[in-house]
Amino acid sequence: MPLPPDAADGTAVAPADARRLSRVFLDRLRDLDEGTRAHQYTRNTLIEMNVSLVKYVAGRYRNRGSGDLEDVVQVGTVGLIKAIDRYDPDRENEFTSFAIPYINGEIMRYFRDTSWAVHVPRRLQELRRALVTASELLASRLGRDPTAAELSDHLGVPREEVVEGLKAKAAYTAASLDTPSAEHDGPPGDGRALAETLGRHDTRLDLFENLHTLAPLLESIPARDRDILRMRFGQDMTQRAIGLELGISQMHVSRRIARSLETLRAGLLED
């Protein structure tokens, strides 16, 4: 397959051509002896041609708040090199699909090791990573978050160190309130800072207050009416099903529900 004259300079290859040419160079790399000049040239050209892929992945971390973008690209290039060395051209998957997880993995490892808001000893950084893995594993087994004692038993480290490691997790990142927010109702790029999105009214607080007020009011209505409300709104039963359950007509159920709701509504408004 003939190569364009600018293929010798991998950085000059357009991204659209890089995917096609990478396949050619990967096939050639497999047939070359490692350590030879031809092998080194082909490998270096592959790296140069796919730097744009590294920059694309690195761009996702532009607002991560730690490290210069150029540093992130250099770290991602390490992942690209690993992908080049491990890719098997005989497989059906595209090289880009194969390389992105390697690039992304190296970048995430870089942030994992450097993105600490305050200085934390290396042993606590390593313990934090172990705690994250152990917490996920135990949570899947227990159906809840594990306690410090359970994490201690699982990892075989003193409980005091586990507690210290859990505290260290809080020092992992610290976002600036001036950071542009990605979650708001305005148009993209309107420059709205994170601080401007905080302090919103939480409607769940109103729900909590209403339920707190409603609890004693429920005790003021007859037990049979409470049962009807529980079946209707707690068990999502139809009025007809409730009537069959209690041996009364559907109309009678409807009237008792309406009367109970009116009593509860009046109590809430009065309160």
From TrEMBL:
UniProt keyword terms in alphabetical order: DNA-binding, Sigma factor, Transcription, Transcription regulation
Pfam family for this entry, one: Sigma70_r4
GO BP: any one term: DNA-templated transcription initiation
Gene Ontology MF annotations: DNA binding; sigma factor activity
Top-rank lineage group of the source organism: Bacteria
The keyword DNA repair is assigned to this record: no
UniProt domain RNA polymerase sigma-70: residue ranges: 71-84
InterPro entries listed in its UniProt record: RNA_pol_sigma-70_dom (IPR014284), RNA_pol_sigma-B/F/G (IPR014322), RNA_pol_sigma70 (IPR000943), RNA_pol_sigma70_r2 (IPR007627), RNA_pol_sigma70_r3 (IPR007624), RNA_pol_sigma70_r4 (IPR007630), RNA_pol_sigma_r2 (IPR013325), RNA_pol_sigma_r3/r4-like (IPR013324)
Protein name, entry field: SigB/SigF/SigG family RNA polymerase sigma factor
Organism phylogeny: Bacteria, Bacillati, Actinomycetota, Actinomycetes, Kitasatosporales
